[in-house]
Amino acid sequence: MHQNQAGTDPHHVLTMVNVPYKKTQLYDELTDGYEIFEHYYDVMMFLAVLCYREGEPKTDDYKGGGEGERGSIGIERFHGNSHYHAIVASLAYQRRGNPEAMADVEVHANVIPQYAAGGLEVYEEKFGDVAGDPTDAIANYINSCTEDGNPQREDDELQTILRNFEGLGV
After folding, report:
1. How many angstroms separate the Cα of 123 from the Cα of each of 84, 86, 128?
2. Span 42-83, pLDDT tens digits
């Protein structure tokens, strides 16, 4: 097993880094309530992508403690999924403008909740007044992202999420 310069197993370092985030009722609604997503980290990635597309990352109250409850997810949840890891690295670069940020776990742990908190605001604007199950509204939004004239790649994360919805029978 490889070790970093300090002699610490890099996989062990990942398990020690947590991503603090602003956990609102939306996380419970989208996982346990409507079962759109399986895990909170899936919700975080959806919100982060939503923010990247239409919002601004938040640099204040993005870790919770203010309006929202403070949650925490291990960074390994994001790094253990190749799509999520690529998104997180891209967001880190976008936010910091430094290629080294793409491999910096601590930067990742800060950037994810900043984009997710920004995505919470976008979500409220787009879907906040949807009564009941928001699954169809979210799926329609994802579909509209490919119909608005912007070329989308086949492996676009929103399309990946839509394919997951289709697996739920939506």
Report:
1. 19, 22, 7
2. 999 999 999 999 999 999 889 887 655 889 999 999 999 999
The backbone torsions φ and ψ at residue 6, rounded to the nearest 5 degrees and listed phi first, read -80, -5
Burial of 95 (0-12, 13-18, 19+ CB in 10 A): middle
pLDDT of residue 63: 87
Residues 162, 35, 121, 109, CA torsion sign: negative
> Over 70: is that where the pLDDT of 12 sits?
no
* Spatial contact of 152 and 159, defined as CB atoms under 8 Å apart: yes
Taking every pair of Cα atoms in the chain, the longest distance, rounded to a whole number of angstroms, is: 53
Return the domain boundaries, the chain.
17-131
Instruction: Determine the 3-state secondary structure of 106 from DSSP.
Output: helix
* CA dist list (Å): 29 to 92, 106, 108, 157, 161: 28, 29, 25, 21, 17
C-alpha to C-alpha distance for 104 and 133, rounded to whole angstroms: 37
Higher pLDDT, 14 or 123: 123
5-15: average pLDDT? 50
